[in-house]
Write a structure and sequence with these properties.
single chain, seven-stranded mixed beta sheet, 7 helices, alpha+beta, Double-stranded beta-helix, 296 residues, three-stranded antiparallel beta sheet
Amino acid sequence: MLPLGAEAAAELAATVAALNNRRPERPEDAPLPHLGPILQGVAERLENGRGFVLLRGLSLERLEAEMAVEAALLVLAAHLGTALPQDGDGTLVGRLAGPTAEAEAPARFHADPADAVGLFCLGQPREGGSITLVSAPALHNALLKADRTALAVLHAPLPHRAPEPGAEPRLLPVFSTTSGCFVGRYDREAMPETLPEPAQIAALAALDAAAAAPGQALSIPLHAGDLLLYNPQLVWKRVHAGEASAADAAERTLLRLWLATPFSRALPESFRAVFGEITAGATRGGVPAATKMVGG
């Protein structure tokens, strides 16, 4: 966790005002003398550190309109990489409602099609859900000790639904290594509910059990002004439902960024179907124009 004070928020607000509705694409388009070096350190931690960073206390009360807050997030995105479209309309800042206690089932771990994901907490009720993170390498190592049969299946291609009806399923591994770098991608929502092989079903059950083991995951309650950034090739996320709020209570709102980062690792050839490009440092991922998102 990196605490940010009023100086960082004021600098960001001043930069947004100076841009006058122009979207920056590079750090030099929106200079941040104080916050910029912090973001450089964040980028290093996302790719070569623990894979996640929580920037706490980025209070943006100066930016009264939500559109101005979105503009501020795009300034941060320009210092971390390239903001990616999250739907066929090209939306760069997604809006997510918080989970409710009435959810039929807990959300599964999944990976967004990006090198980094940012979740900014715009508003949070007093009693609300939390974000749970788990380390993909740690899960890999847990299965290496406990169930090598399951681990071998997770290194093999598993079927994922294609975005177009009637198209052949995509075949992607959960765990892989490319150019000496570990890659973990688990998108259970994009997989068929029933997999063709019993060994695949058993392997995913073993993975879910490992993720649910005590001490394996980290739950982070987000407060208004928090920005959580994580690398979905190294860290997986799920959302826990909170208590049902009163009818007049404020709902939790998260704003989401998907980023392609210049220091990203190479991806397996099979990931080309999701990311378009697999070369390290390439601008890749997101949702192509006029395409509907499948899964997480």
